[in-house]
């Protein structure tokens, strides 16, 4: 096969790929024009189904026309960078983030919702991370804790984690902290809403070798809350994290 033949074949393939993405009519040698839409519909449906599966809450928030227009714009104009299909939905989030779309004004919670839904996929699919060695017995308040490394702390402006997306309004705008982690035994993704104090506490446990008791002194000064109150509130919170296997054990 000579270079000219290869160039022609490449040009035909590119035109066909562009047509499948945009739906804009093209002439392709050796094809029947009235059959081309079937190929485009088939490819588009694969993309649409993948995105609906990744973003069921977002799909439920938008109208059918808004969703179809969003997917059409994304598929037709965005050059996907990942060769892994499961990562493609993240690029939809980036597409919405980086483009001036009317639906962002209509739905101010949209970006938070997309990111929240994506993070469930990200945590579920993330590579296994080996935890530091730990003991299974100890004291949650006074011992150094070993945390489940397969987690993210997410901050959002809207309560997309516990309120129906269509019922969220500007009145809900605030700062919400969400702990997202994967259960070691089941692989199930867990979401826990955190107060700003407990979000801070988890970050400090991750980055220091201090116990909760030691950290409570700094927290008391930083948040202007009595140390004893912090310790009392922390006990039940830490018990919950231990029972759900976010706290794996003790150093």
TrEMBL record:
Every Putative DNA-binding domain range: 14-96
Name of the protein in its database record: Uncharacterized protein
Pfam family, one: NGO1945_C
Domain NGO1945-like C-terminal: 148-241
Gene3D superfamilies: 3.90.930.50, DUF2063 (1.10.150.690)
């Amino acid at each position: 096969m000579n270079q000219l033949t290869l160039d022609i074949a490449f040009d035909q393939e590119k035109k066909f790929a562009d047509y499948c993405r945009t739906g804009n009519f093209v002439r392709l040698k050796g094809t029947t024009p009235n059959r081309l839409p079937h190929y485009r519909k088939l490819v588009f449906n694969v993309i649409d189904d993948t995105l609906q599966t990744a973003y069921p809450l977002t799909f439920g928030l938008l109208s059918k026309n808004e969703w179809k227009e969003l997917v059409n714009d994304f598929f037709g104009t965005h050059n996907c960078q990942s060769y892994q299909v499961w990562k493609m939905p993240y690029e939809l989030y980036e597409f919405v983030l980086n483009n001036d779309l009317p639906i962002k004004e209509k739905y101010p919670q949209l970006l938070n919702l997309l990111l929240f839904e994506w993070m469930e996929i990200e945590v579920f699919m993330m590579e296994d991370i080996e935890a530091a060695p730990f003991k299974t017995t100890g004291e949650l308040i006074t011992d150094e804790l070993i945390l489940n490394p397969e987690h993210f702390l997410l901050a959002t402006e809207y309560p997309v984690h516990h309120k129906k997306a269509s019922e969220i309004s500007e009145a809900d705008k605030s700062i919400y902290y969400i702990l997202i982690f994967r259960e070691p035994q089941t692989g199930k993704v867990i979401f826990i809403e955190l107060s700003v104090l407990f979000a801070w506490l988890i970050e400090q446990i991750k980055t220091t070798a201090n116990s909760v008791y030691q950290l409570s002194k700094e927290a008391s000064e930083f948040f202007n809350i009595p140390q004893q109150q912090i310790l009392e509130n922390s006990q039940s919170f830490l018990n919950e994290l231990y029972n759900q296997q976010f706290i794996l054990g003790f150093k």
